[in-house]
Please model this.
Amino acid sequence: MFRRRRPLHDFAEELQSHLALETDRLREAGMSQAEAERAARLKLGNPTHIQERFYEAHRWIWFDQFRQDLRYGLRQLRRNRGFAAVAILTLALAIGGNTAIFSLLDAIMLRPLPVPRPGQLVFFNWKAANWPKTVSFSSYGDCLFRYSTIHPVNSCSFPMPVLHRLERDRRDFSGVFATSGLQRFSVQAGGSAALTWGRFYTGEFFATLGLAPARGRFFGPADDRDGAAPVAVLANDYWRSHFNADPNVVGREIRVNDYPVKVVGVAPRGFHGLHLGFHEAIWLPLADEPLLFHFSPKTAALQAGGQTFWLEIVGRLRPHVTRARAQAAAGVLFEQETTAGGHPNFKPSDHPQLLLTSAAHGLRLLQNNFSSTFYLLLAAVGVVLLIACANLAGLSLARVGARQREMAMRLALGARRRRLVRQLLTESLLPALLGAALGVGLAYAGATWLVQFLSHGWFVSLQFNLSPDWRVLGFTLAITLLAAVLSGLAPAWGAIRIAVAPALKENPEQRALGRGWSAGNLLVVIQTALAVLMLAGAGLLARSLLNLETRKPGFQPNHLLFLRLQFPDIGNASRRAPASRKFNAGMPGWQTASELRRRLAALPGVAASSYAGYVPLGGSLSSGDIYLSAPMGKHPKSAGEAITQQVGPHYFATLGIPLLAGRRFHANEFAPPASFPAHPVVIVNQAFAQKYFHGANPLGARLWQSGAKHPASEIVGVAGNNLVSSLRDAVQPEIYMPAQLTFMAYAVRTRGPAAAMLPSIRALVKQAAPEAPIVYLRTENQIIARSLYQERLTGGLISLFALLVVALACLGLYGLLAYEVARRRREIGIRMALGAASARVERMVVGRGLLLALAGVAAGLGAALALTRFLASRLYGLKPNDPATLALVGLLFLALAAVACWLPARRAAQLDPWQALRSE
Amino acid sequence: MLTRKDPSRAALLQGTLDMLILRTLKLGPNHGQGIALAIENQSEQVLLVEHGALYPALDRLEAKGWIAAQWGVSANHRRARFYTLTPKGRKQLLQEMDRWQRVSQAIGRVLAPQEAEG
Model:
């Protein structure tokens, strides 16, 4: 391609020299000077053409032409500023939106873990026909967990003996480690204790990942043994932010959950644990867990045994070992251990199977939480991009129609059609490129905002790595080119079919464009259909959000707030196996904890205070079997299930739940949790009374709870129904018990706005329980808002996109009609001169526009009927094909379309026929 | 018009112009007009060289390094661009002549099969 540059003038000179020599020769042969010159010239042909051939052979000709086309395109854009602004802005929004969502997907799903050869890491899952026999089972959200009594079950939670078997058999794995899920630690390093996220890992963790410490050393198998001194490794960011990057941190003693732990090393920069998008701060050997969480020896023994499923396992395949081979080999071990080990969990007929999935992108907690939302949003912005392209294609089709003469002239002057198509595509590339440049900026801002929104709605701050990588850049480039081609294809197709002679002879404004017109119509119908589809989705999501927000929860959420603390010695008690609760009971923290409720209630501005096992609408609940007659035998038949809630004094008054019958709990029923009371009492809700007593008076009746070898509880009251874990819940039977346990969230009923009380409560906690860091302090309305964050996010964003695309579709319709009116000026003039009333002309134009809009609405609603079922799981209180919503959406769009049609129609009706005819 | 088609004269076959140029330059350096004239004369006016195609062809051969060019003065004292065959061009010429002979013999056999049999 690159050749020595011979100047064009040198070549031209050679042609001149040729003419001179040839003239000489012909003259010698007997011609006159004039005759000879003419003959030589004729034989050579057109020198300019020959020079062009020379020129094209010597340059990167397409690049040259591309530059020409770009310059020409820029001139065109400058000339049509309105068009340019619409084109660039819509493409910026569309490309920016797509890039923003894709970069989030990339950040949590596509980026590899920052460790050497992440492709070798595998994550252990299992599936079986039936649920395993266990004493305790923990799941941490890192796999698609399915619990069912009829269908096969799957999980990624394993008992310790399975890990030991895998550790011993090393044919396929160069390393295997386990972890017990994300933990919140109270870490104290000099100052006051602060909560931070971390995990326990087995000794091979760092070696398996292949990391090298930035400071000190990592912990290893020697640190992960009973009796070894507790050690910790800090994440690099945490070391910088909380230890001021202290170079002497190695060897320093910190307190974790009020227990002395030695820091042995700092992890390398960029490694934040096994979740992409979530940063852990501290890692400790798994052997330290019983110590740091004050497990009883019994619990610790249970966790080491085969009856407790509580470990997530990750392994690294040896080079050249396939996942399938490792899965088959390790699967045999798993099956042996769980069906024929010391404590069989499965019957052989359960066919427990081991499944290895890639852990190259880390554990799947965030993916499981966000990926379906991100895919939905990606589909939505994809539709926005399509509409933006269709819109631009329609607008530029009209412009090409107006430029028919220019195109025909170029063709007549010898331009190839291919060249014209290239020029038109380049012209559409220009707004796409400018839009993409603007869009990338928008994308970064949008993605950052989205991450903040998600962090706010989730329980913890998320740190997605949004710096664009090659996948994001490639994606953006690909959709930019796609946008350019899609928006340039229709006009280019029009240019191919221009008939030169008629286009030159006639005034293009008089000519019907033939089939070029129907392409314009089709584009408007496509835009309308997609916009209606989007509007239907937005309408459904918005209505179900409204249904959720207006749902009565059964308690008074205003003027209510919740406070949760982590007492060092009774900290994570409720997360653990039941056995650990009893062990916690005698802890001195209980005095502080129950005293704090009285001090909260005594605060000025507080009406009442209580505590409860879980926060209403906070996303969690516990439930169990209940028995209405004394449970007999090994497998007593239960009456059914009920939600169980442990509550403190004045709970019903604090939450504003009405007591419908019977009495509240007496003060003496809130005994310290040392033992179970001799005469336990419960309050049930109305749904419980209806389900189990069928309207009869339940007061005084007795019930037994699952697994309880304790005396029966007497029902002393009936409370109103309320929603427990989320606004989507159905009302369920519920039992309230006086709290036996101090690990609770405090509920505080304020007299004024709850938010105003937050500072004084924070001050009180600091003074009354300085050793207990605040896990959270939120108003109930904040908790409810958080429980709806995914609905708000998708509903809000999709409504925003819907507004945008409806505006675009109306603009497309308007543009098409305005262009048609301009083109048919003469025809309309003649009609009016012949006596057509302007109302009739108006009707004609509006009618044509509405016909297109109707076609689009019909197609859009048809698509909605087929596609909205994919939204079903996100809807509440209405069906995916909710006729009212769909009808409303159709009518709303038609109304907007009528306005878009009426504007050009009015212009047509106000046409002065004489002027229209004379201007020809 | 002057360029009435003369049925006895043939336009050059595609791709043969390069070979003829190289062959002509084997006799010694020449300028473009001279090359065209030489081809026409040597073919006894049967082959017709399109002057318009000649110069782009010369440029192409020069770019491939088969011929080299230099401005000089013609026999009748006109300034002209003279082309010479390079060693690379000489090799190329041998190859092309060899190929041409094989092809033309093959075509000859197809056109006159009896002789080929005999």
